[in-house]
Write a structure and sequence with these properties.
With 200 residues, the chain is of the alpha+beta class. It contains seven helices and nine strands. The protein has helices at residues 3-16, 21-28, 33-45, 83-95, 100-107, 111-123, 139-142, and strands at 18-19, 49-54, 57-62, 97-98, 127-131, 148-151, 161-162, 166-169, 174-177. The strands form three sheets. It has a three-stranded antiparallel β-sheet with strand order 1-3-2.
Length: 200
Amino acid sequence: MSRQKLQDAWQAMKILKRFSLQQVRDAIEHTTLDSLKAFAKRLVAANAIAEHADHDDIYYSILNASYSPFEQPVNSGVTNKNSGRQRMWQSMRILNEFDAGQVASTANVSLSSARSYISILKKVGYIFVVKNAPRSGSLIERAGEITIYRMLKNTGPKRPIPKTKGVFDANTNKLVKFKEVKRKTVQIAPVTLGEAHDYN
């Protein structure tokens, strides 16, 4: 299994927290259970995850989410600016229902980056709002209230790429255009000359 797939598997495990290897395989696709078993064995030996047996079923739980099972690569000065979006997309696919903070923390990106990508995906109908955070009321009343989103179009493991008029979905090889925003027409009452109006 490639280093990228191992990184995807570790991210999926941290998001799921308690999982079977089949769940991890379903989350990241294009890998084998044998590869995941070997990787899980490494993580168990490093005390990063714990193995549990429930009758004939084997499942795992996270012990140390901050553990890094990979050697840090030498920084060549070249960065993949889209890797954050790939991690965010994977987080959304696994969580299915989420808020911007969860996506930011599980994908290891800033909250503003998560909100920006979520906003783009919402405009093309890939996710929708389940619960809006209140915009009125005092800070105390709004404390802890967050906007919750849900995945609507899970087209595959590759992230949708933002473009000028929408997003390019490499899973379907199609450009999905932004939905048009319908604006309400404001009707202004006609004013007859000579009428007195009270503007106070």
